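User: I'm writing a short report section on ligand binding and want a predicted complex to refer to. Could you take this sequence and tryptophan and write out the structure as tokens? A short remark afterwards would be nice.
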Amino acid sequence: MTTDSNNTARTRVLTGITTTGTPHLGNYVGAIRPTVQASLNPATQGFYFLADYHALIKCDEPARIQRSTLEIAASWIAAGLDPERVMFYRQSDIPEIPELTWFLTCVTGKGVLNRAHAYKASVDKNNAAGNDPDADVSAGLFMYPVLMGADILMFKAHKVPVGRDQIQHIEMARDMASSFNHLYGEHLVLPEAVVEESVALLPGLDGRKMSKSYDNTIPLFSSSAQLKKLISGIVTDSRAPGEAKDTEGSALFQIYQAFASAQETNTLAKAYADGIGWGDAKQILFERIDREVAPMRAQYEELISNPAKVDAILLKGAAKARELATPLIKELRHAVGLRSLASHGGTQVSAKASRVTVPSFKQYREKDGQFYFKLVDPQGSVLLQSLGFNSPKDAGLAIAQLQQVDAKVITDFGTQIGLGEGVKLAEVTAALEALRTELAEKAKAKG
Ligand code: TRP
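Assistant: Sure. The structure tokens for the complex follow:
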């Protein structure tokens, strides 16, 4: 859980779409529609983005990547995604992502990446063809899971809705997060894949999975007439009107099911049994899809003819997303040792040995015989510094007040407790909050 500005815990849900093609009905049913629905859940905070760095791995046509980015962004918005409500951005507008990719690259075993499905499939294919195992395999393809890990870990996502083929990538992202945390302290959140069982894999025109690579797709946005024409091309068997039809294995039926209510689906099943003609069934399918898509068409068209407007939306989204990414990358740079040479902790023992993850109070006695304390953050920077107390009990009481009440009580102590150099009160408040959470969790674990 993350705490937002309203102090409410919200689950962060994040997913991206690679910008290599024109969105089709399969993308709509499998990714666009479910994310739009999920974005309406007030208990979650959505992060939805256009994975254009990933697109470079698969596509070397600049114009196509640019067009696809526009089309997917416009589809998402036309389908109801509200950029004000969620984080909606383009991956390449977040320079922190490639930087985090490098940090993760350095904590990821090469052997782990050797086992990634997409890379392995290419190697297997080469081996089968008697080619060099890495023939035509770019290092980009090899690194695909790390870039994806950075997308996810950058925003401390808890849940990542993906298709089955992507589960392995989320598991790898988890491993990267735990390796990083193990080495450098608890900075990253371990994400979980969410595979929506009810989101059917949509068959395409030829009955195989709807996919660009099979060239069997129906674009999400085309004219009504075009949609009708494409639907008329869906494969069916040769049964004549009047003959009962099988719903099982019928691509037409499966596509209908992805759009229709349970009741509508039952009605069509009955019509199949009663021997509906394929032409009539296709007309029913066309009308059902058109009913869902027609209201979005105008906005889609409007956005496509105003690319500057889409750019502005994405840039605004990126600025919002970077409010989270910039401080995190700063924290991570510091954690790994890319930091000011004068900063505290510069000569400290390795982070591995001192895995402090939350701020902590340190009490100590000085040569003057008095009792002091300071509050330090996980990187060792001083957030609060006290002057001397006469007894350890007095110092302890002051700490207890800070912990139980709020950072604001430091004003009650006059000059006795001061902020660390360059530290803002809000940072101390946040640190105390983190400490409280930690203590509460420890208490809970104890039972
Ligand atoms: N690899 C995903 C796909 O092809 C797209 C993607 C890139 C993604 N980065 C992501 C999905 C992060 C979820 C989270 O479908």
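A remark for your report: Confidence is low (pLDDT under 50) at residues 1-7. The radius of gyration is 28 Å.
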